[in-house]
Amino acid sequence: MPELPEVEITARRLDRALAGANVESALAPGMVTMKTFDPPLDALAGGTVAGVGRAGKMLVVRVDELAVLVHLMSAGRLQLWDKRASLRDKASRLLIRIDGGRELRLREFGTQQRAWAKLLPAGEVEADESVATLGPDAYPAPPVEELERILDEPRHLHPLLRDQRAIAGIGRSWVDEILWTARLSPFQRASELEPQQVEAIHDACDSILGAALDHYEQVIGDTVPDKLPMPLQVHRRAGDACPRCGTRIEAIHFKDYVMCYCPEEQTGGRVLKDRRLSKLLK
Ligand SMILES: [Zn+2]
Asked: pTM of whole model > 0.85?
């Protein structure tokens, strides 16, 4: 599930490999992938890649005066391949063929088609609804005063920090790491935070997301793998000992994600009700 550090390293690697390259052709095998039709995808043919960047959890591939805005959703990957995809590859959603036989390929795992792309005039990316509604990037963290305003909402921290309109780039993995680092409960009401707790979230965004990016810069070569080596300490670590205090990491299972936390340091020693477990016990 790519979040800010994963999308950022993807953008950096693609930018390094593609800036200045020429686009030969483009096609979209994913029937519902393209959310725009004007300009047509063919308009990319013959263009030169100006660069690859990131907007929140989205990628922006600029080709001359055009830009392809890509949202990977939960199972998409945008990768550069040396060879062209077989047209029978059911995971292919969007193929941008580069001179010399390479191919920038949006693939998606699983049967659902949720990843999407838009082809826009480059100058219209900022104004696109998906970009214009983003909050400030979580990394580098916004200034503490700005974060204070963002968090002044009567909502639980876990969903608020994952709300891209409030703050951009955090998803279900890194939110657990940030809250654990800041020693805050996922169910803490944001508007009731003390100033030093807001500061702790600010510092955790910088340290955790920054360390993830540094890690990726070290271990990821030219090709970003399907599964990134995420340096997680609590997320998906239920049952392990908390790396800081040794308490057993607990988890709460929701329909499509898991929330992990250290009860000792985040919830005042309380193990919160696991909805899945309580359902089973009914
Ligand atoms: Zn702990």
From this structure: yes
